[in-house]
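Good morning C.,

I know you're traveling, so I'll keep this short. The sequence:
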Amino acid sequence: MPMIHRRTLLAASSLMALAAPALAQGFPERPVRIVVPFGPGGGTDNLVRILEPHLRASLGQPVVIENRAGAGGTIGADLVARSPADGYSVVVVDSSFAINPSLFPQLPYDSAKDFAPVSLLATGPVILLAHPGAPMRTLQELVTQAKAQPGRFSYASGGNGASTHLAGELLKLVAGIDLVHVPYRGTGPATTDVVAGHVPLMFNGISAARPHVDSGRLRALAVTGPQRAAALPDVPTFAEAGLPDVTASTYWGALAPAGVPAPIVARLSEAFRVAVTHPDVQDRLRSLGFDPIGGPAASYAENLRTETAKWADVVRRASVRLD
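The tokens, ready to paste straight into the viewer:
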């Protein structure tokens, strides 16, 4: 390489290194867009809308929430992956982001290379639910009866490849039982049919399940997570019920496009931390079944590596196919 060319590159690199902190110091200078890759009213949308006023206050700029639903969250994620790497576009995803690489070999983006983790926002337990008319009252009763009559019981999910589907596949693998999967186009229709007694079982998030459990329309058999959910303290964990390896809790996190300068990622991460740890926010999130975290970018990067590997193993062992 000619000396002048090398010196030019070194000079440019030095200028970029000096410019990054200055860029972050002025960030943000206009509204920040948060893409929710699911429809309004769901868990991810609720989480972002609870955080929005505090993010706005912390960043000192408007925060615009944009719902871009479709294809299991990949449409909204791809929109942000293709956005300028300036920190003004962020996507908040749930565990489907870690599951999708194992289910969709032709994703429009590279999950590991096209995003910069910003913050691990929250986690939430997943509950195994049964219709009150189903013959099992506990998880152990379900396992015993399912082993005695393989294929007798079915479980509903929000669709092939959804986290509620793979939670059922994980239960089957861990417990050594055979359950029949019945996919729906969303957890709403799935819940409706389980409440009506058309399907005896399903996995669901605590915020969606709690009203039906409180009213007696559904029976909660077990909940994921290291301890009982504050919103449903009478429901045992899978570990208490004898299946500690059923670890299917949902995680939510914020991602920016790859290449966003580290100081800007740090600025966004701090804004999310401040929002998530606000006492009013924590109370609201816990009432809906979220466990607030507000972790830094590094913790979310590690979480994504762990969750992606875990669900890839479940997909492989359960031979999950979307066709």
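Safe travels,
E.
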